[in-house]
Design goal:
The chain has 929 residues and is of the alpha+beta class. The protein has four domains: 381 residues, Zn peptidases (Aminopeptidase, 3-Layer(aba) Sandwich); 128 residues, no CATH class; 99 residues, Alpha-Beta Plaits; 245 residues, Class I glutamine amidotransferase (GATase) domain (Rossmann fold), CATH 3.40.50.880. The protein contains 30 helices and 39 strands. The strands form eight sheets. Strands 28, 29, 30, 31, 33, 34, 36, 37, 38 and 39 form a ten-stranded mixed beta sheet that branches. Strands 1-2-4-3-5-10-6-8 form an eight-stranded mixed beta sheet, sandwiched between helices. A seven-stranded antiparallel beta sheet has the order 16-15-18-13-17-14-19, with helices on one face. Helix 22 links the parallel strand 28 and strand 29. The longest helix has 21 residues. It starts with 8 loop residues before the first helix and ends in an 8-residue tail after the last helix.
Length: 929
C-alpha cells in the first residue's frame, strides 16, 4: 500500500514553533498512554501521515487515509461509509472490537436490537444476552469544524484500539464494540483549517484574539450551509445529520461520547450537567454520570489536569449529541476542551497550552470512558434493556399518543413523518376517519372529542423510542420552580441569563401542522408507515381551453411556482377566493392563462407537476360562478424574483445559512450572495429582492454608512423589495436609517398608547361594526378613537423601565402569531402560526404599515418555552411581520427568524411568500416596451 504523506507550510511552522517553547513546555512529551505496547505491524498515525500527532491539526484527506489504512491492516477494524456531505466528502465511521466480535458483528447488532425493544424478548433471554453481548459505544468527534483537537485525538484512539497489545485493552475490546465517527463535520473543518493555513506565519502567535486563532467570517463552526450540526440531531435538516443519526439509531448504543472545544482560557468540562434537566431524561442517567465522571476525574488527576462539571452545561434542549443519547436509552457524555486552534495559546496565568496537550486530554477522556463502559458492561446493558422495554407513561394528563393531521398541506406532514421515521420512531397512519377523545392541541386548547380524518398520523408512546418521540413532539415541557428561581435571581442580580439554548422546540409547532395529544391510548385501526412516498400529482383537464389553476395551500405549490417562474411562464395569483366549474379556490391560487404562455404550456405544466407533486386543474372558461373572474385585475401578475442575500461579519452565520439553505437546497433557486461591505459599490438594479439576515443592527449601519443607506433607499423606491430578518429588521426599523415607518419599541416609548389604539383599530377593521341608524338616520356622534397621548412626564424613566423589560427577553420560546388571511404574505399559511423568538427587539406598527402577522395577546401569546411576564406584556400585540410601501418598492420586516434552524416551516412559508409573491403583489415598476 502506498503511504499518503502531506507536506504543508503550516505543519513546518507549527512544529518549528513548538520546538521553541519555554523549557517547561519543551520537556520530554508524555506518552499518550504510558506503558502500553503496540503491534509493530500497525503503524502509528505519524508514520502514515508524516507528522507528529498533535503538532498540527490533521486535514480531512489525512484522516480518511488513516481510516482506510487501519481497516486494511487491522483485523480489529471495519470501515463503514455513512454518507456524503454537501461538498462531496465521504462520511465514515470505524467499528473496532475484538476479532471474535467482528466475526459475528451482524449477530451482535441484532442481539442489541432485541434488547433495544425491536421484537419479542423473554426475561431469561434478555438476561442471557446482557451477560454475553458486548456493549456498544458510539464516539463522535469534531461536530463543530473549528473545534479541532478531538479529531486528532480520534486518530490516536483508533490506533490504540487497533494495535494495543496489553491484556487490559484486549479485554476492553472483548467487552465493547466501539464505533468511532472521527470527523462529524468535514466541510466545516476544512474551511477552518484552510483559514488557519492562510494566516499562519513563521512567528507563532499565542494570542487567542488573533485572526490566526479565530479565523474569519463565516468561520468553521458550521457545515457547508453554516448550520450548527450539534443543534440538528432531531431536526435532521442537514445531510450530515441524517447520515449520522441513521447510523447511530441502527447501532442502538449504550454510551455516546460527544467531544467538543470551548474558549481558549477555560480548562476542561465533562458530565454531569447542571439543571435544568429535561423531564424526559431517564432517572438512571444521574447514576451513570457519577460513575463515568468519577473515573474520568481520576484519569485527569493522575496528570494534575484541571477540569470541572455542571458549571454552565445544562440538559434541557434535546438536540445536542450528548443529549440525544439520553432519549434513545444511552448515556450521553459531553467533553469540552479549551481550544488552541491547532497551535498554542498563552493563558492568562502565563502558562502555554499546546495543541498536543489538548489532544491528549481528549484521548485520556475517551479511554477512561471506554474503560468504565467495559467494566460496567452487564449493568449498562441491563439498564438499557429495562429503559427501552418499559413504559414511562401511565400517568394522567400526560401524552399517550400524538395525532398529526394532514390538513391542507399534506406534503409538510410527509416531511415531518420522514424525519420521525428516520429516527426509528414508529408512526402509524389511519386508513379512515375515527373519533379521538380528551385532546390537547398545540395552541393550548382542550377538546373533549373530535373526529380526525383518514390520513391522520399516529405516534403512540408505547414503543421503544418513547422518550425521544415525547421529547421532540410534546408542546410545552415545564422547568422546575427551583430552576426558574435560579434564572430569575441571575437576571435580577447578574443581569444575565443562565439558559444555554432555546427553551421551546416542538416539531409539530415548527412544521405548522394541526396536532393533538391525548392521555387515552389509541385503539383504532392503522398501518405502520415504513416510508412516505412522494405524493403523486394530479393533472386534470390538461387540454383546457382557457387556463390552469394550482391551489396554493400545499408547500409543493411554492416549489411549482419557483420552477414556473424560472422557466419563463407567465403566472398570476388570485387576490380573492372564487368558485369556477364546480370547485372552490382560495386566495393565492395560481393561474396560468393559455393566451399569455407558450403553446406548449400543457406539456410543461405536466412536467412541473410530476417533479413537484403539485396538482394542476385545467379550466375552459374565465367566468367564475362566485368571486372574481379569471380575466380580471384580481389575478395579480407575478414577477420572477432576482434574489440577493447579504453576507459578511455583521451577519449571523446561522441566520444566513438557514436562508441560503432553503433557497439552494429546497428550491434550487439561484441566489446572489453579496458582501455587505461591498454593497455600496454594487449595481443593485440587477436584483428585485434583497434579504438582510439577522445580525447586529449597528453593524449593518456601520457597514452601509450614510451613502449605502441612501443607495438602498433609492433602490427600494425604484421598485425593490427589501426583507429584513431579526437584526436586519431592527436595522431597517431604526429611526437613524429612515427606511421604515415601523419602530423599535425602545425608540417610541412616548407613543405606546397611540400604537395600542392603532392596533385596536386594525383589529376592528377586520370585522367592522356598522350601525345603520348612525349612517342613514344621522343619529349618534362620531368619536375619534385614535388621539395622541399626553406627553410622558419622564421619558428617562420610561427608557429605564423598557431596559429592564428587555432583560426578561423571550429565551428561545415559541410564540403565537395571528395572521391576516386577506394579505398575500399569509396565503396558504392559515389563521395563525407558531414562531420562534429569541430577541430583545419588539416592533411597533400602525397605519399605513400593514401587519399581516401580529403576536397574540398576553394571555395566548406563549405556546412553548420560557417567557417571563415582563416579556409577555412587552411583546404581546407587537408586529411579527410587516409590509409597507416606499415609492414603487416595499419594506418587509420579520421580528424573528422565520426559517429558524431550517426547521420552522410554518413561518418559513411567510418568508417564501415574501420572496415569490412580493415582487408582483407589493411593487410597481414600468412595463418594459
Amino acid at each position: 500500500m502506498s503511504v499518503y504523506r502531506v507536506r504543508m507550510r503550516l505543519a513546518v511552522v507549527c512544529m518549528t514553533a513548538c520546538a521553541c517553547l519555554t523549557s517547561a513546555a519543551q520537556d520530554v512529551l508524555p506518552q499518550f498512554v504510558p506503558g502500553e505496547t503496540y503491534d509493530s505491524s500497525i503503524l502509528h498515525p505519524e508514520s502514515v501521515l508524516g507528522f507528529s500527532l498533535g503538532s498540527r491539526a490533521a486535514r480531512y484527506a489525512e484522516v480518511v487515509t488513516y481510516l482506510k489504512y487501519l481497516a486494511e491492516k487491522s483485523p480489529r477494524v471495519r470501515l463503514v461509509e455513512t454518507g456524503e456531505t454537501y461538498e462531496g466528502r465521504k462520511q465514515y465511521h470505524l467499528i473496532i472490537s475484538a476479532e471474535g466480535n467482528l466475526e459475528k458483528i451482524d449477530r451482535i447488532r441484532a442481539d442489541i436490537g432485541r434488547l433495544a425493544g425491536w421484537g419479542e424478548l423473554s426475561n431469561s433471554t434478555a438476561e442471557n444476552l446482557a451477560q454475553s453481548t458486548p456493549a456498544i459505544v458510539w464516539a463522535g468527534y469534531g461536530i463543530h469544524g473549528d473545534e479541532l483537537s478531538s479529531v486528532d485525538a480520534a486518530l490516536f484512539v483508533m490506533y490504540h484500539l487497533a494495535a494495543a497489545t496489553s491484556a487490559q485493552t484486549q479485554s476492553l475490546l472483548r467487552e465493547l464494540v466501539v464505533c468511532i465517527d472521527p470527523m462529524q463535520n468535514p466541510d466545516g473543518r476544512e474551511r477552518f483549517l484552510a483559514q488557519m493555513q492562510q494566516w499562519a506565519g513563521p512567528a507563532l502567535n499565542t494570542d487567542a484574539q488573533s485572526v490566526q486563532h479565530s479565523g474569519l467570517w463565516p468561520y468553521g463552526r458550521g457545515n457547508h450551509y453554516l448550520f450548527d450540526l450539534n443543534r440538528d440531531w432531531f431536526l435532521l435538516t442537514q445531510v450530515e445529520s441524517r447520515n449520522r443519526v441513521s447510523a447511530v439509531v441502527n447501532w442502538n448504543p449504550q454510551v455516546i461520547i460527544d467531544s467538543h472545544e470551548m474558549g481558549a482560557y477555560d480548562t476542561y468540562l465533562f458530565a454531569p450537567p447542571r439543571e435544568p434537566i429535561n423531564p424526559n431524561v431517564p432517572a438512571n442517567a444521574s447514576k451513570w454520570w457519577k460513575v463515568f465522571s468519577s473515573d474520568q476525574a481520576k484519569a485527569f488527576d493522575r496528570y494534575g489536569w484541571s477540569y470541572y462539571t455542571r458549571e454552565w452545561s445544562d440538559e434541557w434542549y434535546p438536540g445536542y449529541g450528548s443529549s440525544y443519547a439520553l432519549y434513545i436509552g444511552a448515556i450521553g457524555i459531553l467533553y469540552e476542551q479549551a481550544g488552541v486552534d491547532g497551535t498554542v495559546i498563552k493563558r492568562p496565568d502565563g502558562r502555554i497550552l499546546t495543541y498536543r496537550e489538548a489532544v491528549h486530554h481528549h484521548i485520556v477522556s475517551t479511554l477512561a470512558n471506554l474503560t468504565t463502559a467495559a467494566g460496567n458492561r452487564v449493568a449498562l446493558l441491563k439498564d438499557y434493556t429495562a429503559l427501552r422495554r418499559s413504559r414511562v407513561g401511565g400517568s394522567t394528563d400526560a401524552p399517550e399518543v400524538f395525532y398529526l393531521l394532514p390538513g391542507k398541506n399534506p406534503s409538510r406532514l410527509r416531511r415531518l413523518v420522514e424525519t420521525l421515521v428516520r429516527q426509528k420512531i414508529e408512526v402509524r397512519v389511519a386508513g379512515k376517519q375515527f373519533r379521538a377523545s380528551d385532546l390537547r392541541d398545540s395552541w393550548g386548547g382542550r377538546i373533549s372529542s373530535k373526529t380526525l380524518p383518514a390520513g391522520t398520523c399516529i405516534v403512540s408512546l408505547d414503543q421503544p423510542m418513547e422518550r425521544l418521540a415525547k421529547a421532540i413532539l410534546e408542546f410545552d415541557p415545564r422547568m422546575k420552580t427551583s430552576v426558574l428561581q435560579e434564572e430569575r435571581k441571575s437576571l435580577e442580580k447578574e443581569k444575565d441569563s443562565k439558559q444555554y439554548d432555546v427553551t421551546g422546540w416542538s416539531l409539530p409547532m415548527a412544521y405548522g401542522i394541526e396536532a393533538y395529544w391525548s392521555d387515552e391510548v389509541f385503539t383504532g385501526e392503522s398501518a405502520v408507515v415504513q416510508a412516505f412516498q412522494a405524493p403523486r400529482a394530479t393533472v386534470v383537464n390538461l387540454q383546457a381551453t382557457y387556463g390552469y389553476l394550482i391551489e396554493f395551500t400545499d408547500d409543493q405549490a411554492v416549489e411549482a411556482l419557483s420552477r414556473l417562474l424560472d422557466g419563463g411562464y407567465t403566472v398570476r395569483c388570485a387576490k380573492e377566493p372564487f368558485d369556477i366549474e364546480g370547485r372552490s379556490y382560495d386566495r393565492g391560487t395560481l393561474l396560468l392563462r393559455r393566451n399569455e404562455n407558450d403553446p406548449a404550456i400543457a406539456s410543461g405544466l405536466e412536467k412541473v407537476a410530476q417533479e413537484t407533486g403539485a396538482s394542476v386543474t385545467g379550466v375552459n372558461t374565465a367566468l367564475s360562478s362566485k368571486g372574481p373572474d379569471l380575466g380580471g385585475n384580481d389575478m395579480v401578475l407575478l414577477k420572477p424574483p432576482r434574489i440577493a442575500l447579504i453576507a459578511g461579519p455583521e451577519v449571523s452565520t446561522t441566520s444566513f445559512g438557514a436562508l441560503w439553505h432553503i433557497f439552494d437546497q429546497r428550491f434550487a433557486k439561484r441566489v446572489s450572495i453579496l458582501q455587505l461591505s461591498q454593497v455600496g459599490f454594487l449595481d443593485l438594479r440587477k436584483y428585485n429582492v434583497v434579504v438582510l439576515p439577522s445580525g447586529e443592527g449597528q453593524g449593518y449601519a456601520r457597514a452601509f454608512g450614510k451613502a449605502g443607506i441612501a443607495q438602498l433607499k433609492e433602490w427600494i423606491e425604484a421598485g425593490g423589495t427589501i426583507i429584513g430578518i431579526g437584526g436586519g429588521a431592527a436595522f431597517l426599523a431604526d429611526t437613524a436609517t429612515g427606511l421604515s415607518a415601523v419602530r423599535l419599541r425602545q425608540q417610541a416609548l412616548k407613543e405606546l398608547e397611540l400604537y395600542a389604539k392603532a392596533v385596536a383599530l386594525e383589529e376592528s377593521a377586520g370585522a367592522p361594526a356598522v350601525d345603520s341608524l348612525t349612517i342613514w338616520g344621522g343619529k349618534g356622534a362620531l368619536r375619534d378613537s385614535v388621539r395622541p397621548p399626553k406627553p410622558s412626564p419622564d421619558e428617562k424613566e420610561l427608557g429605564q423601565l423598557d431596559e429592564r423589560l428587555r432583560l426578561f427577553m423571550p429565551r428561545g420560546c415559541i410564540l403565537r402569531v395571528d395572521l391576516d388571511q386577506e394579505h398575500w404574505l399569509a396565503y396558504g399559511v392559515g389563521v395563525r402560526v407558531a414562531a420562534m423568538v429569541n430577541s430583545t427587539s419588539a416592533f411597533l406598527s400602525r397605519d399605513p404599515v400593514r401587519t399581516p402577522g401580529r403576536f397574540s395577546d398576553a394571555e395566548h401569546i406563549r405556546l412553548s418555552g420560557l417567557l417571563w411576564p415582563e416579556a409577555r406584556e412587552r411583546v404581546a400585540k407587537t408586529a411579527y411581520v410587516t409590509r409597507e410601501g416606499r415609492g414603487k418598492g416595499q419594506v418587509l420586516l420579520f421580528a424573528g427568524e422565520p426559517n429558524f434552524r431550517g426547521s420552522f416551516e410554518g413561518t418559513a412559508r411567510l418568508l417564501l411568500n415574501a420572496v415569490f409573491l412580493g415582487p408582483g403583489f407589493g411593487t410597481r415598476t414600468m412595463v418594459e416596451w
